[in-house]
Design a protein that fits this description.
Its EC number is 1.5.1.2. This is Pyrroline-5-carboxylate reductase. This protein is α/β, with parallel strands linked by helices and 273 residues long. The protein contains 12 helices and 8 strands. 57% of the residues lie in helices and 14% in strands. Bound molecules: NADP nicotinamide-adenine-dinucleotide phosphate. The site of NADP nicotinamide-adenine-dinucleotide phosphate (NAP) has 27 residues, from helix 1 and helix 4.
Length: 273
């Protein structure tokens, strides 16, 4: 990493552990990373495995850092921010990153002040295995801050900047919810094989590796997804027969409707905060 800043993570849950793990793996100095959490167990684990600084006091880590990553559950965010606002007086000098789902940037301004610089990041669960897809958006950070945060989240997968928070909702409905769609699809494919006599273990092994292989091919190829599909679909062959079933049942409409339903729910949830 080129830009090394003192960074404080508020909350030491699954996401923080993955992101900090990715940062350390990419060579970010552990002595520049601070993590706070109310219960000590996760902190002890992170301190012993990664060598980062830890504290049970959010304010103590924030005071030492240039960057704050808010990584608590959305329902706790207002209370955590109120405590920070009442005890830290130079918040406008720090870069604030939030990974909480659903809470929009204007809401953070009501919590932390109009003059904050904030970046919202929407990671997804494959970040836990270093294969995440994180969406990022800001209304206030400059290019240097954006490059810094991109590098941090590149440590747990790929990053994609979007233009506004409506687009982040769409990204959340595709990449955030997407692992569940793929698991649903993989499960149904595996069950298809099981109906024809495959045992569950072998059905799963064959489906997950095929999924991984197809994703890797898509990543490495310049072809469109449609052309990649055509490449493995010889006319009159068995794949063509299988694909025909998906097309007859209109998989495209099903997927588009699923994304629209998840976007709608994201927007409803944003209204809750
Ligand atoms: N997991 C995902 O795939 C994912 C994807 C996108 C966005 N996110 C967002 O990422 C955030 C964190 O998610 P997560 O999955 O890492 O959740 P998590 O594993 O439940 O972690 C949340 C952590 O916050 C700690 N905490 C509770 N109260 C606190 C306080 N007052 N001050 C500081 N820390 C406090 C909890 O500590 P204790 O356990 O000791 O109470 C816990 O370690 C959430 O806002 C979520 O919406 C998660």
């Amino acid at each position: 990493m080129n830009d090394i800043r003192k960074i404080a993570f508020i909350g030491a849950g699954n996401m923080t552990q993955s992101i900090v793990g990715g940062m350390c793996k990419s060579g970010y100095p552990a002595d520049h990373i601070f993590v706070s959490n109310p219960s000590p167990e996760k902190l002890e684990k992170m301190k012993s495995s990664l060598g980062v600084n830890t504290s049970q006091d959010n304010i103590e880590v924030i005071k030492q850092a240039d960057v704050i990553v808010l990584s608590v559950k959305p329902q706790l965010m207002e209370q955590v921010c109120a405590d920070i606002k009442s005890k830290v007086d130079n918040l406008a000098d720090k870069l604030i990153i939030t990974i909480a789902a659903g809470i929009r940037m204007p809401k953070y301004r009501t919590y932390l002040g109009d003059d904050i610089t904030i970046i919202r990041v929407m990671p997804n669960t494959p970040s836990l295995v270093g294969q995440g897809m994180s969406g990022l958006v800001t209304d206030s950070a400059d290019d240097k801050d954006k490059a810094y945060v991109t590098e941090v989240f590149d440590g747990v997968g790929d990053t994609l900047w979007v233009a506004d928070e409506d687009q982040l909702d769409i990204l959340g409905a595709v990449a955030g919810s997407g692992p569940a769609y793929f698991f649903e699809f993989m499960d149904s494919l595996a069950k298809g094989a099981m109906e024809l006599g495959f045992d569950p273990e072998k059905a799963r092994a064959m489906v997950q590796q095929t999924c991984l292989g197809a994703a890797q091919m898509a990543k490495e190829s310049d072809l469109t997804l449609e052309d990649l599909r055509k490449q493995v679909t010889s006319k009159g062959g068995s794949t063509a027969k299988g694909v025909e079933v998906y097309q007859q049942r209109d998989l495209h409409t099903i997927s588009a409707d699923a994304v629209k339903a998840a976007v709608k729910r994201n927007q409803e949830m944003a209204d809750l905060f």
